[in-house]
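User: Please predict structures.

Assistant: First:
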Amino acid sequence: MLRDGDLAAAFDHASPTYDLMTAASPGYRSHLRRSARRLGLPGGGAGLTLLDLGCGTGTSTEALLRAAPRATVVGVDASAGMLARARAKAWPERVSFVHAPVESMEEVEAGGPYDAVLAAYLLRNVADPDAVLRLVHRLLRPGGRLAVHEYSLGGRPSDRLVWKAVVNGFVRPWARLHGDAELYGHLYRSVLAFDTTDAFTARLRRAGFTRVRCLPQPGWQTGITHTFVAQRP
């Protein structure tokens, strides 16, 4: 699987067509919006500062703004190509983007603290998920909320079979057509290798989070994509 600079470079290469690919994935945007709403942020986010961790081209940033239109949002990503796509879109002045690996966030202007964090499709891509979760715990204010939107299989054999069918039927043909086989091969393998829902729920608790819940997404992604919501005490 790809890690660190190799993964960022693969995302750079895929960035020109990434939004087209995700737009063709049923439920991709609506599921991100559902995860953002599951943060349960009050007052439209007025007075809150939110972190979109691994913001990519900004689709998750848009989801946060829909859930909390009055909040300040900082998007962080390690891929310069993906961030360039995000920055090229129209945003309110209270939205900003920072180029940094998640592991280096405390060294740049994205060091927080934050009232809530959304981490979408990020944790299975980092070399040390436990270290990243501990970092997120530090970046959150006491009582701050976390939503992890991630491919995390439910543990049934059918969940793995559906994932393999989707990748082989759609994702890999797309990857070959656009020269991104390396990135989407990583996507396929990383999902199969990542935590099941029970294992990731336990990982969140070990990192010090409380009120941990695992919530499914609807449609074909049931059993494949979940929202994990948690809180810093």
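Second:
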Amino acid sequence: MRTLIVTAFISLDGVMEAPGGEPGYRNTGWTFTAVEFDPAAYEIKAREQDEATALLLGRRSYEAFAPVWPSMTEEFAGYNAMPRYVVSTTLAEQDGRWPATLLRSLDDVAALKETDGGPVIVNGSATLARGLADAGLVDRYHLLVFPLLLGAGARLFSDTDKDLTALRLVEHEAYSNGVQKQVFDVVR
């Protein structure tokens, strides 16, 4: 069984929308504009590319990444080389610039988890991450928590009325810029 890892840049109040400068959000680019850069804080992102064996995205993240990431051969070489999966009920076909296998439901994700192979990483994809968590499919969280309160914006965790989910902190570190790495396993 494969491990499903949700990785996100989030504010202290749980917002993960537009951390890298995506248009349409009032605080767009908050990871770069509001907090001093400390390269040590991003070590986990390089490790994710080395350890993950597949990338899982929601449709909107895939549509944002597909035109850009293939040309970022140094920054995203690992992601560009691994198999990609996109969960969407509306996407008609994959983007030929960054091919991916289309999955139509969370049941398809559950079936992917049952296959042989290493970890599957979910990058960005707020709506998908919330759905995966609510369906009990997330095994681990890799979070970079920024010392910011952004208020409105897409959040990592849903407000669905569900049973308690216990997490076990397995790795953490605080960096000079106030960013905290928090790695949690979901306790089953």
